[in-house]
Amino acid sequence: MSEADRRFMRLALGLAARGLGNVWPNPAVGCVIVKEGRIVGRGWTQPGGRPHAEVRALAQAGAAAQGATVYVTLEPCAHHGKTPPCAEALIAAKVARVVTALQDPDPRVKGAGHAKLRAAGIAVSEGVLEAQARAAQAGFLTRITKARPWLALKLATSFDGRIATASGESQWITGPQARAHVHALRAQFDAVMVGGGTARADDPLLTVRRFQPKRAPVRVVASKALDLPRNVLAGSLEQAPLWLLHGPDAPAEARAFWRSAGAELHEISVSDQQLDLESALQALGTLGLTRVFCEGGGAFGAALLRASLVDELIGYTAGLALGAEGRPGLGALGLARLGDAARFELVESRAIGGDLYHRWRRQTHA
Fold it and tell me: How far apart are the first and last CA of the chain?
């Protein structure tokens, strides 16, 4: 691949990132159209998933798209859905070459887009900045290949891994800059999720504040018995959708209350007297979610780790220690040996205000 191919694909990846949190169930795709070394069109998937990136870029390029090179972060779609295939739009525009980062694993596409372009006489180059695109598309890829969304578990703790003092005081362990960063991250995910324990303890709002997302993340609360506080969550349905995951035995009165408040209820099977978390995540995938930002609590986060459902750890560590009497960031994991613990690889770390931000991805190799 040429340096120009890498440079324009980096631009397309930057455009794709603008769609994160806004475009589910579709992938966040970026597209750049180049003719004679000059960008004549660019686009990214719009809120709700349409129009697609290629359609936006072609509209901007107009007649200049003929004979141009198109850089797109995911294989152009080849199937007829709510809109015609992007591969056909590129063919109709008479582009000369299409450069992609990833093949689309969706069975409706999976190579068919590339094949359609080649059959029309368009040169196709694949795999340009594939690793970067795969990381950026982790949510969509996980939903297609594992039938569940990508899950990031966030923990804000003291230096010694505590989330509160022994008395339960926790506001605020981290500083205002770190808390603002959390809201910026929320806006990049399709949903913000907590367990019933956190909801009962905090009655959290779970919305994006300090920023104005184009599409408010869905708020997801997992509570087997729907025994949730009815103040903040029930009184804020106009701010963001609320999905409640509950067990088969959740009381009829609680179901009726939350439905009347405007929440969306989803019954999940139970395993070992708790919600089956794998079934819960698969239900969210079926509903179209690709990226979920989980903010605890400790028991819920530990249960997700035990079930091997955490793809990414996001940590905010403050420069204070609370000691053994403080409340731990995670509940029991039941580990007998160090080798039984899931390993994560450091992706990035940096100071945010007076705190340390660090992000880790689950290792996929031995």
Answer: 30
Among 173, 187, 192, 213, CA closest to 353? 173
Catalytic residue from among 3, 36, 54, 264: 54
Secondary structure of residue 294 in the 3-state scheme: strand
Q: State the pairing for strand pair 38-44/274-275.
A: unpaired
- Return mean pLDDT, the chain: 93
* Alpha-helix residue ranges (DSSP H) falling in 203-350: 252-261, 277-286, 298-306
Does the predicted TM-score (pTM) go above 0.70? yes
**Given phi > 0 = left and psi -120 to 50 = alpha, else beta, which region is 314?**
beta
Residue-wise pLDDT for 46-57, tens only, equals: 998 889 999 999
DSSP code at position 80:
-
Least confident segment among 11-15, 190-194, 331-335: 331-335
Q: Distance between alpha carbon 204 and the CA centroid of its chain, in Å?
A: 20
Cα separation, 29 vs 366, in Å, equals: 31
Q: Is the pLDDT of residue 303 over 90?
A: yes
How many other C-beta atoms lie within 10 A of the C-beta of residue 305? 19
Q: Is 3 a catalytic residue?
A: no
Query: Helices (DSSP H) in the chain: which residue ranges?
Result: 3-16, 53-61, 86-92, 112-119, 130-136, 138-146, 176-186, 196-202, 252-261, 277-286, 298-306
**Strand pairing of 291-294 and 30-35?**
unpaired
Contacts of 232 (CB under 8 A, 6+ apart): 203, 204, 205
